[in-house]
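[worker-b] picked up task from shared queue
[worker-b] task type: protein-ligand structure
[worker-b] ligand name resolved to flavin-adenine dinucleotide; SMILES cross-checked against name lookup, match
[worker-b] sequence length check passed
[worker-b] input payload:
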Amino acid sequence: MLDFSLTDEQRQLQQLARDFTRKEIIPIASEYDQREELPWQVVEKAHEVGLLNVGVPEHAGGLGLGMFEEALIGEEIAYGCMGIFTVLMASELGITPILVGGTEEQQKRFLGPLVERPALAAFGLSEPGNGSDAAAMQTTAVLDGDEWVINGTKMWISNGGIADITVVFATTDRSGGYKATVALVVPKDAPGLSYNKIKHKMGQRASLTSELVFENVRVPRDHQLGGLGDGFRIAMKTLDKTRVPVAAGSVGVARRALDESVKYAKERETFGKPITTYQAIQFKLAEMLMGIETGRLMTWKAAWLVDTGKPHGTEAAIAKAYCSEMAFDAANEAIQIHGGYGYVGEYPVEKLLRDVKLNQIYEGTNEIQRLVIARSILK
Ligand SMILES: Cc1cc2nc3c(=O)[nH]c(=O)nc-3n(C[C@H](O)[C@H](O)[C@H](O)COP(=O)(O)OP(=O)(O)OC[C@H]3O[C@@H](n4cnc5c(N)ncnc54)[C@H](O)[C@@H]3O)c2cc1C
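[worker-b] inference finished, payload out:
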């Protein structure tokens, strides 16, 4: 029989993340959004309480939590701030290729330090000239003795410049397509690697997004994950998993949109009555809850497929596309319910909309998710 209840451990984890969000994230989210600054103290505190880099396996010293647990945490953190969610979850995104393609020894070497102290990872796939068509990457990796030499530019990299390690995808032959790609673990301070912070983002401004410029950056050959030609496969397998937390985060944003809407609608009166008495408002609230419940079910199913080792690419794509659009609509309706007040920063709902727009774009746009879904239908 299907069982949708959480175990005691999962409930405790969810409560931990909920309390953490209420105490450490909600009070500072707006300030860091305005300052366009990553709140490092939140990373430190997340590490302290055990909410950082939770995917690091036990053999590397971590908690080895599954995707379902990541989804539970992600929903709670995004309830407080989708930008801070991205700081924490982009680190799990950076860890995942090492889980997918790394040996046990590499996992210990690269992931162990990420749990010993507050530290982040990053995932470097997108480039200025190509995001959706990732296999067309132009960043090159050339073997020189026992070292890879990397040249090129990666674009839009979350945690870029602050992450201790970035998994960088590069091509060994620009005309070789996806079969000529490698995945390399690059330390933050590798000589020849420089960072440019991307400013004036529409939302998620508490997360750090950077351009990474590689000029003859050298990494030892044993920083290579998997075999020659495995880079693209590792990147795609990673995204098939990490789209689940993006879906979970979207559910968190939608839940916040609903809670803020209910709170405001109960207080706001027009024509002598609270606006909750109007069916037009009630229907918006009902639509939000319908989306949240549907989205969470799909997210949990995709997480369960990941954790049980079953095929999950299509379900993760459905969850990511559905939840990010559902959450965008919820945030939009939350602004509508707040009327003019929804349009200014005094209430949190305009930030929800700005933040959650990105969920339709990163980790593969929703058009790309639809291609993934359609491919599974037509194959
Ligand atoms: C704030 C932020 C953080 C990010 N973090 C990371 C990160 O940590 N690591 C990383 O590697 N990347 C990251 N990204 C990059 C992100 O994943 C890409 O922006 C995204 O994949 C889209 O790529 P693009 O911007 O090049 O758009 P393009 O690929 O140029 O697409 C432009 C438009 O065309 C559509 N399109 C493209 N091809 C098709 C097609 N075949 N069929 C139908 N429609 C199509 C797209 O859906 C989109 O609407 C981040 C981006 C942002 C903005």
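[worker-b] attaching auto-annotations
[worker-b] The two ends are 31 Å apart (CA to CA).
[worker-b] releasing lock
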